């Protein structure tokens, strides 16, 4: 059976959550390059992240399911300041005081050290926060 990539992830936690959601819907899938990214995060961008591979005949259903899950997540997410629903995860510039530490952690751990730089941004009021 031929498998094709339906999505890619920067860390194994998000990849495993998506894989479990597809498996619950009886979609045959597996994670490509999971061990490469997990054991050496510096290769994450080089290999294109952890790819969620699905059986080609089930690709359309997998895409619909992942889009529905994302739509549901967006429907429930709210800004803690203005309660607006127009929010998204964005990358934010690093704080100056953390540049040396961030550079060292990025060298040692690759993208795993970059995770704190991704915050939720409200496009209604401009508020940013990093709580999940
Ligand atoms: Zn807001």
UniProtKB/TrEMBL annotation:
SUPFAM superfamilies: GlnB-like. It comes from Flaviaesturariibacter amylovorans. Pfam families: DUF2007. This is DUF2007 domain-containing protein. Residues 12-70 form the DUF2007 domain. InterPro entries: DUF2007 (IPR018551), N-reg_PII-like_a/b (IPR011322).
């Amino acid at each position: 059976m031929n498998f094709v990539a339906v999505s890619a992830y920067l860390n194994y936690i998000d990849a495993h959550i998506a894989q479990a959601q597809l498996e619950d819907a009886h979609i045959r899938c597996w994670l490509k390059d999971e061990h490469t990214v997990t054991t050496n995060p510096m290769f994450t961008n080089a290999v294109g992240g952890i790819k969620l591979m699905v059986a080609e005949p089930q690709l359309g259903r997998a895409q619909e399911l992942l889009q529905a899950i994302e739509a549901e997540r967006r429907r429930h997410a709210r800004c803690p300041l203005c309660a607006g629903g127009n929010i998204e995860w964005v990358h934010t510039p690093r704080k100056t005081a953390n540049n040396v530490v961030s550079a060292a952690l990025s060298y040692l751990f690759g993208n795993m050290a970059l995770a704190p730089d991704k915050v939720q941004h409200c496009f209604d009021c401009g508020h940013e926060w990093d709580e999940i």
